[in-house]
Structure formats: C-alpha cells, structure tokens
Amino acid sequence: MPLSDKQIKKLCPGGSGMPKMVSPFIRTQEGFPSYGLGPFGYDIRLGNTIRIFKDNVLIDPSADVSDLENTNEMHVFNVPIGQQFVVHPHTTVIVESLEQFRMPDDVMGWIVGKSTYTRLGLILSATVIEPGWRGRLKFAVINPTAARIKLNSGAGIAQVIFDNGEKPELSYSGRYQDQGINVDEPTSDDEEDEGEE
Fold first, then answer.
1. Who wins on pLDDT, 195 or 142?
2. Could you tell me the pTM of the whole model?
3. Domains of the chain by range and CATH?
C-alpha cells in the first residue's frame, strides 16, 4: 500500500540527526507544475543537468551506461534553476531530479508522470527506486509529438510513490549507487526543511 503524507514525513525528519529519505524536503505542494509532499507521494523537481544523445550514436546497454555522461555520445547542458529549455519533437532527453534520495532498506519507490505533462503528450520513463539506493534520480523525458515543449528547470516534473514492506535480505548495491550526489552533503538537521508543517 502506498505511503501517505504522514508516513513520508516520518521518513524525512527535521532536526533528528537521521538522514532524510528526500532532500531537500518540502512539506507542502507548491508551484505549477507542483512539487513537494502530496497526499500519497512526493512531486520531484527537474534538476539543471540535461543530456541529449548525439545523432546516430550506437549505444550498447550491456556496457557501462553509467559512464555515458563522460563520453562523446551525449550533449550535456546546464540549465540554471528557473530557466526553460525546449524538448524538440521526436526527441528523448535524460534528466535528473533536483532532490536526492537516501532510501531506507525497507522502502521502495516508483517514478510516475504528472498529469500536466501527460496532457501535452510528454512521456516520462517509469523506473523503480530500490531499497537502500542513494542518489539523484535520472530518467528519460520523451517527446513523441510534433510540437516543441518547454520545461522549466526547478519546476515539478514527476511524482514518486513510496511503498514499504519487510526488510529484504538484500538492499541495492549496484553501479548507480550515489549517482549525482556528494555523499558528504547534509541531509539531516544541517539542512533546512522547506515549507510549513
């Protein structure tokens, strides 16, 4: 059963010294498209790093795709928070969340698209956040339409729905652990919660 806002808040404590599951953590829904805590999920924001595959490159998924950003197969753009970029027709871009995650060993999450973008025909790649995983989420935004669609860096981009169960024997320890984060970044009481209780 999905975790409610009350349960998610308990996993993102302020001032307790425990690492937060989501950081920065915003306790209310804000903006449009919205971001922050919802009734049964958390709306994440679009970070400022955008990657687009170069034309006609050959990608081997059995290779170490975690290192693609350091190769010549992708264009990498930094879009300052608050500024826009355009997803052109029939284009896939790889984006990352502004938030970072430190998943408990008994909680998993699913990334799903937001209604605002679905109504425009934009598709977000669904992916799972494994128990024990740490990092910034990376996922694909696909524009299969004939229109150009603007996205705003720092605006709501997707929703994460959390679920928990009995702690598994194994937690995530794969190649994407700690992607996009500085493991020394504060995620507990050294970082302010945003939004009101």
1. 142
2. 0.84
3. 5-164 (2.70.40.10)
